[in-house]
Amino acid sequence: MEIVSSVTGSVTGKIIDKPFNEAGRHFGYLYHYNDYIEALRKQAGKLADVRDRVQGKIDSAKRNCEIIENDVQKWITDVENISEEVEIFLEDEVNANKRCLGGWCINVRSCYRLGKEAHKKALAISHLREEGKFEDVSHRAAPMGIITSSSKGIFESRKSIVKQLLEALNNENVSVIGLCGMGGVGKTTLAKEIGKQVQESKRYDTVVMAVVSHNLSIVKIQGEIAAVLGLTICGIEESARAGYLWERIKMEKRILVILDDVWERIDLQKVGIPFGEDHEGCNILLTSRSQGVCNQMDAQKIFIVRTLLEEESWILFREAAGTVVEKSDLNSIARKVAAKCSGLPIAILTVGRALKNRNNKYVWIDAAQQLKKSTPTNIEGMHKDVISSLELSYNYLESEEAKKLFLFCCLFPEDYNIKIEVLVRYGMGLRWFKDVDTLEEARVRTHAIVSTLISSFLLIAEDEGYVTMHDVVRDVALVISSKHNNAFMVKARNGLLEWPIRDTFEDLTGISLMSNYIHEVPAMLECPKLQVLLLQENSPLVIPDKFFQGMKDLKVLDLSYILPLSLPPSLSFLVDLRTLRLEDCYLGDLSVIGELSNLEILSLCRSSIKEIPETFCRLSHLWLLDLDHCRQLALIPHGVISQLDKLEEFYMWNTFKNWDCETNAKVVELQALTRLTNLMFHFPQNSILPSHMPFQHLPNFTIAVRVSWEASDFILSTSSVNKYSTRMILSHDMRFSPLLGWVKDLLKRSEFLFLHEFIGVQDIDGDLISGGFTELKCLTLQSCDNVKYLLNTLERAAPHETFHNLEELTIYSNHSFVEICHGQVLPAGSFNKLKRA
User: Pairing mode, if any, of strands 678-683 and 649-652?
Assistant: First the structure.
């Protein structure tokens, strides 16, 4: 009987509890109405933070041309939708209910409904926050393959080749097609045009192109093809790479493989390219300066690209030289000059550009005479008139500086992206520039010279800050350099395993063996005239102790990208060395560098170094010191930096955190660097800022104050940042300490300002500085929760000029921000230039 009662009671209790719990929950919507509303506000704020973090990853991925995952895109859309719903809910319905409560009109039904709705939305937000914990938001897209300009420059004589070639590609019995002709005739241009047309017509599913060049590298060819196909084969052995590439190409139903600039027979099976019976959907188009190579490659169809017809040559020359060639007293001479270019597009463009808009007929007569008398040197596969025409373009460069820089570029490998900043640092070491007093002046001069060379078609503009040299132009530059007392030994990216054998090195002024596989250099070399030695990208490399003893006139030395690297004692013999690059190296003891008393430019950026030796105090002529991203650097002895009082440029971005610790360097040592014109510096998060710094007149700076390395690196990775010369990234809590005067001075002069987790200010213009932001062009506020306005004209008079140069404005994760200008009066001209917000 007791058992029956117990069971009955238990069941009855559960039956009774259920409606009571349900009723309690519904009563809670009414009774805890305000709590649910407040909980919703907090959840919405947390969701906004998660969204901003995900959006930051998305923006970074897009800058890297990556594809955003579908679930991430859907999540962002869902977040935007619910955020909009919550904003409307809080602003309209909740505010309306508050007005009712303020008037003692308590609407029980409304409170219950709002509490229930707030709880429901808070649960949905909580679910979205959990979903937002993405490990990856994107994946790398396969490159687009062949991308060319329109066929505007394809002349009638070339269109027939294009038509015949397209017909050959439609022939099922043709797998390999050859396109041959002399250097500079336009084979690559035509091959790209073919690739573009078959891509647009969907004749092939995929088009890939690899540049072979004179120095055959199977690994390089495989890498270029794999990159377009989205295949990762880096680090895999060559034999295995071929197998992976073979299977990946067979996955493409129709694929065109373009092999550009082939100089010898290539074993396509060794590369990993199936064709013919192995893959009927794969066609191969190769370009070469030799018809014999096309035959060796078993090309079933070979098309010869000949020079332009006379009238075609004249049309192209007239476009390059300008309308001046139509003048009656110049036209006949100009036509003779154009004719001497022998119908070669590269020669026509370079000569025409060199003579562009020159009105003096004697200049044109002289040009014709030079072309006639020029004695070319034989270069395999190149017409003699190409050499003479390019040499004429070189001769017409107006400055010796431009000529020196142009010839220097032939020291780099074929198809190499040459960084302009590297040319600046080399050029200063070699004294290219006249009447240049600072590194910044040299940088401006270098960019101007490069621009001239690009417009003369002697260099090709690549990504921002980089140029390349056409392989034909490079060949000619090597010929020209030998005529101007430049004895260069250039075997860059030649696949060398050992130091090249040569009878003597005593006549050489430049050696470039960069990008090879040399593991050891000779015990010692006698190179009394050597000015430049480029050995970067040979890793690992052993340098014997006496190697540098016979190079006492060396001015520029580059040993970058060598892991590991031990600096030999003989480095101290380089008493005239001015530029030393040791970037991306794994380095040990650096003491010997302190013996280089005439050193002016020293770059150690991204290298693995643990300490700067005290011997650096002796580098009294140092103009530039680059220590960017030397993240293992733990010791800089006190007093070293202050001794480098001739420094004009100092780069210490995300490098050193141990300022002011025991015997380490002090931040105040920067006060001794009164000649600075360019500074990149990161004041650590916990550092004590000096009360005074001599930065009032610093023309170029990037300074981060109390921002993490990761955050500052992310901020500087944005594409638009580099166009600004004065940049500040700042995190600070003004509740505990005001901004120092020198920081405010930098803020006033900054073109780019990023405020990150800045606390204790309500309006930017009034609370941060006085006098207004007169130089600011780009402003970003992130997680500055106290900031309500940019301007507050109700409480204080705004400066006459503030934000009148502002072009970009970004505000996110600033939950207290209300409006740009609080008040009726907006200063005249403010925000007039704003283009993006």
Answer: parallel
Residue 379: strand, helix, or coil: coil
Strands 532-534 and 510-512: parallel
CA distances from 276 to 126, 229, 266, 299 (A): 58, 20, 16, 12
Contacts of 78 (CB under 8 A, 6+ apart): 128
- Residue 520 β-bridge partners: 542
> Cα–Cα distances in Å, from 213 out to 263, 416, 521?
7, 12, 26
Q: Is the dihedral of CA 311, 315, 320, 323 positive or negative?
A: positive
Tokens representing 435? 């009447």
Element at 790 (helix H, strand E): strand 789-792
CB 258 within 8 A of CB 282: no
Mean pLDDT of 188-204: 91
- Euclidean distance between the first and final Cα of the chain, in Å? 79
Q: pTM to 2 decimals?
A: 0.71
> Taking Cα atoms as reference points, which of 396, 295, 312, 314 lies closest to residue 355?
396
Radius of gyration of the chain (CA): 34
Share of the chain above pLDDT 70, in %: 89
Tokens 């019995």 label which residue? Answer: 173
Mean pLDDT of the chain: 85
The tokens for 553 are 């006139």
Query: Residue 576 carries which side chain, given as an amino acid letter?
Result: D
Query: Can you tell me the distance from the alpha carbon of 689 to that of 666, in angstroms, rounded to the nearest whole number?
Result: 10
pLDDT, tens digit, for every residue of 670-689? 989 999 999 999 888 777 78
Vertex 666, ends 661 and 672: CA angle to 5°? 170
